[in-house]
Design goal:
The structure is a homodimer. The first copy, chain A, is globular. Helices cover 37% and strands 20% of the residues of chain A. The first copy, chain A, is of the alpha/beta class. Chain A folds into 2 domains: 121 residues, 2-Layer Sandwich (Nucleotidyltransferase, domain 5), CATH 3.30.420; 161 residues, 2-Layer Sandwich (Nucleotidyltransferase, domain 5). In chain A, the strands form 3 sheets. Chain A has a 5-stranded mixed sheet, with helices on both faces. A 5-stranded mixed sheet of chain A has the order 10-9-8-11-12, with helices on both faces. Chain A has a two-stranded antiparallel sheet with strand order 5-6. Chains A and B meet through α7 of A and α7 of B.
Chain lengths: 315, 315
């Protein structure tokens, strides 16, 4: 008889749900439902329960055969508890007990921050997962997560692993949303990339069209050798490399994994990041490998499912 | 019947040894012996064994009542194993099995890097130890260690927690001994402090005597309001604060502990570090407390003894 785990990725607009075979971790099916608008402390857990109940009925799966549910949320989480959540109405919520009241006791539950769950899932998805891994995701913002000795680093209150706010640029004048300045995200997030490129376009010839600028267009132009685009891409790679060098000093991971939309530019970006990493790392940690993330926008459901499976297996 | 643990701090010139009551952690006695000159893979462990045997005889303590021995060494250690050691001839040495062969089986052994052991000991020495702590030591070099969920962060090969090599100063031109540049140690280590002050003294009036310059003299002059000394001390505090802000982003400790010789300047330095930390930390982590280290040059023996005791207690 097959056994199953669910991976649930709770976002601001939708809740993604994936059902996995516990043994092979093959995904049986996945779907998404709208995130409820209000009263999230109740409605999110009701919605998850209803969704998996309906899915089980359609697939003729008994809840008895579901061994675990992993849940991620877009806010800091410490041991399953949310102190403060900007994106959802989940302040002071124990995610585990909130979900547990809908479910039979045999179901293992884990809950963590979405970016750290993604880090866990990306590492677990490698051919040979490492004990110590760092995921850096490059998208609208810059995020990520840190895994040490196979465990997610949450920090004192769940704020650990917020890689986008590592200070990398001492000369920055603008204040970041986090209250500091010179953050990695200010340079390597979408706004940082576009603004820097626009400034370059004022004085330089380029194939880029300043009225239709996108991160993808910039990376594509860089691959074609456009000087302005190359300058931007090198700047992004440089500061990701510097941030990685700091992470290697503090936590010495076995691997860096680069994910998020920007990582779609593939080895072109990865090679540049690694070049700048080596320039900034000390001798002893210069050879830590860099890999591209593979789970894409399923990182949340895969990571959540893998995390709960690992908790079940280590019991 | 009392039970005991030993804490051993292996340095390049001496081995410090402390005997502690297992229950109260009161230090019964401590002493030091010269570090053997050669063949460390054998002689260090022989020396430790002989030293504790002699000490036990003098104090009329049976080896049966020694429950654990903690050992620190001045090089990276991963799970009790040294891959490479610059300071001692301990390359490719399993510290645990090298020590174990001299001892009865009931004695628990732990071994780790000296700075990370100190971090463990400093945190454990607080009135109320935290789960997550960072020690930053300011001496000839800048070192430290990271404790997460009560466990020392060793990283992939034992190079974790080497706080002195966090890159904090993008404009640095000189290469650091680690191969990178702009490292915290380049600014806040003794050489960095003295060199910067000497440069300031070329063009500025000061009560400092450039021919008899020391870190202590600089901090003392700063307390008296000397402008040159104050400029140096603010620079040190600023970059410690920036490094701490990075550590808070990545690992979010519950506490920062400042140790090493420079920390003897006390609250004067601590308050400045905290000021710069707050300026550079994001809103959510600005309130992490800073404390002064208390174990002084006994950090190694206290930390080693406390670490092995915690392993015994958690069994």
């Amino acid at each position: 008889m097959s056994k199953y785990v669910y991976g649930i990725d709770v976002g601001g607009t939708s809740i993604k749900i994936g059902l996995f075979d516990m043994k092979s971790m093959e995904m049986i099916n996945d779907f998404e439902v709208e995130t409820p608008k209000y009263n999230h402390k109740e409605t999110i857990f009701e919605t998850i329960y209803q969704s998996i109940t309906n899915n089980n009925m359609e697939l003729n799966i008994s809840l008895d055969d579901v061994l675990g549910i992993g849940i991620d949320v877009p806010c800091p989480v410490k041991k399953g508890f949310v102190i403060k959540c900007v994106n959802l109405d989940l302040n002071d919520t124990d995610l585990i007990s909130s979900m547990k009241k809908y479910l039979p006791n045999h179901i293992e539950l884990v809950a963590a921050n979405d970016a750290t769950i993604a880090a866990f899932g990306e590492n677990a998805s490698l051919n040979k997962p490492y004990d110590n891994a760092v995921l850096i995701t490059l998208g609208t913002g810059v995020g990520g997560g840190v895994i040490l000795d196979g465990v997610i680093v949450e920090g004192a209150t769940g704020l650990g692993g917020e890689i986008g706010h590592i200070k990398v640029y001492d000369e920055e004048e603008k204040i970041c949303g986090c209250g500091s300045k010179g953050c990695l995200e200010q340079i390597c997030g979408t706004a940082g990339i576009l603004n820097y490129t626009k400034t370059l376009l004022l004085d330089n010839i380029s194939i880029l069209n300043k009225d239709h600028l996108s991160v993808k267009a910039i990376f594509d132009a860089a691959k074609l050798g456009d000087d302005v685009a190359l300058k931007t891409v090198h700047r992004v790679a440089k500061y990701i490399g510097i941030a990685a060098s700091m992470l290697s000093i503090i936590n010495e991971p076995d691997v860096f994994i680069i994910g998020g939309g920007v990582s779609k530019s593939g080895d072109f970006l990865l090679d540049l990041i690694q070049k700048y990493y080596k320039e900034n790392a000390r001798f002893t940690t210069g050879e830590i490998p860099f890999k591209l993330a593979v789970t894409g926008n399923q990182a949340g459901i895969i990571g959540s499912a893998m995390l709960v499976r690992s908790v079940i297996e280590n019991k």
